[in-house]
Design brief:
456 residues, alpha/beta, nine-stranded parallel beta sheet, 2 domains, four-stranded mixed beta sheet, Urease, subunit C, domain 1, TIM Barrel
């Protein structure tokens, strides 16, 4: 790969905010070499017509759940909650094949690119065949995801999941969870197997499904085996009040409280959801350097509750966004849900902003999400800066959300003006990505018909 001609943008969001007349040069490895503001376009540069932003990391994804979107919005009993949704979601988890997963993930990853994400962290617990037995190729489901990322051009951090029991007081998984079954050695083998493929812009860390799904000894064994590995470690935590109550009953402590006391948290750790956290737990996480991944669309769809966003922001905890169950696949919409939930709960506006240091809500949130997402994916540095992967988003200033906005208000329009996708172009590692929509959509549609025709 040879270096592309330099790009020149009339405005670009660099560390610290908007800068004018910015020259951006990527090297042959797809990494930003030089970024120079306040300069005119040299001869030979590609002149971009609109401002540019860094891409964002989708820090928590279950790709297979894209095949379930829209299929859990009717009551099937007197009451519906996370746990009844989960049992219905298993309907796709128990039937999807590697080929169907590849089709679903290709469609999803194209949507994520269009929604402004250039990297996705796949919290991957769907490993075995339809009978819950290992495939001959134990990487079959992981390969499907990696191939989908390669086919679409999005970066991928695959996180094989430790998942060994059905609950705090259980010693094994339920019959309908056998496709998820892993022990510590399995997780490490999946991680190492994916790394051995040496695929561009595809890496691997690990994950622990949740406190209820892994024994303490196993978690300690996994962390000990990860000594010296800088890759990320993700875990679902404190998403549901029921989980908090179960953890209290089983351990005498709340989930985040227990995790900060029992595990050696550091900057590799990402606490996914962390919806139900006390101020003391927030301070305890802050002291470790660990990050938190918020999934506002999914948390709203599942009725999880609202996080203490002001508390996490004030404590300086790294924050990231995740598409999770895929009901939302665009980061501007996720940010809008995040802020609007807080406004409804607290009955005030611009909750995520601070006066006078950071009065603009969208830019303040994004200034935290860009580095927080990079930490969640194990990528540093990130953004429009030398040494970072050469990702960017080209805004479409003719989009309805941005049309006519004055300079400096573009991020406000992106997040709060309308639920559109106002990106005219997406670059990953120095290469413009043109999502192929038609073929993945046909394969996605065919896969959904196969999955759901007999179960409608």
């Amino acid at each position: 790969m040879t270096a592309s001609p330099p790009l020149w943008a009339p405005r670009a969001w660099l560390p610290g905010g908007w800068r004018e007349r910015v020259l951006l040069q990527a090297n042959a490895q797809g990494v930003w070499d030089q970024i120079t503001p306040d300069t005119e376009a040299p001869a030979g540069a590609t002149v971009l017509p609109n401002p540019v932003l860094p891409g964002l990391v989708d820090a928590h994804s279950h790709a297979f759940q894209r095949a379930f979107v829209g299929l859990a919005e009717r009551l099937v009993g007197a009451q519906d909650d996370f746990w009844s949704w989960r049992d219905r979601m298993y309907g796709v988890a128990l039937r999807i094949t590697p080929e169907q997963l590849h089709a679903v993930a290709c469609h999803l990853y194209g949507e994520l690119l269009q929604g402004g994400y250039t990297q996705v962290c796949e919290f991957h617990y769907l490993h075995h065949d339809l009978e819950g037995k290992p495939y001959t190729d134990t990487l079959a489901m992981s390969r499907a995801l990696a191939q989908a990322a390669s086919d679409t051009g999005i970066g991928l951090t695959l996180l094989p999941v430790l998942y060994e029991r059905a609950g705090f007081n259980q010693t094994a998984l339920r019959d309908d969870q056998q496709r998820f079954a892993t022990q510590v050695d399995d997780v490490l083998a999946l991680r190492d197997g994916l790394r051995a493929l040496h695929l561009p812009h595809i890496s691997a860390g690990v994950a622990i499904h949740s406190l209820r799904a892994a024994a303490l000894d196993s978690m300690h064994a996994l962390v000990q085996a990860l000594h010296g590995d800088p890759a990320p470690i993700h875990i679902h935590i404190a998403e549901q009040t029921g989980e908090v109550q179960d953890c209290l009953a089983a351990t005498g402590a709340r989930p985040i409280e227990w995790l900060t006391q029992e595990m050696p948290l550091d900057a590799r750790w990402q606490l996914v959801h962390a919806t139900h956290a006390t101020p003391q737990e927030i301070q305890a996480v802050s002291a470790t350097g660990a990050g938190v991944v918020l999934c506002p669309g999914t948390e709203a769809n599942l009725g999880d509750g609202l996080c203490d966003l002001p508390g996490w922001l004030a404590a300086g905890v790294p924050l990231a966004l995740g598409s999770d169950s895929q009901v939302i696949r665009s980061w501007p919409e996720e940010l809008r849900w995040l802020e609007y939930g807080q406004r409804l709960n607290l009955r005030r506006r611009n909750v995520a902003a601070t006066w006078p240091a950071a009065p603009a809500t969208a830019s303040h949130l994004l200034s935290r999400m860009w580095p927080g997402g990079a930490q969640a994916a194990g990528l540093s540095p990130w953004g429009l800066r030398p040494g970072a992967r050469a990702d960017l988003l080209l805004l479409n200033m003719q989009d309805a959300a941005l049309l006519g906005l004055p300079h400096g208000r573009e991020l406000d329009g992106l997040v709060f003006a309308a639920p559109t996708r106002p990106f005219a172009g997406v670059m990953v590692a120095g290469r413009w990505i043109t999502p192929c929509v038609e073929t993945p959509a046909r394969r996605f549609e065919a896969s959904l018909r196969e999955l759901w025709q007999a179960h409608a």
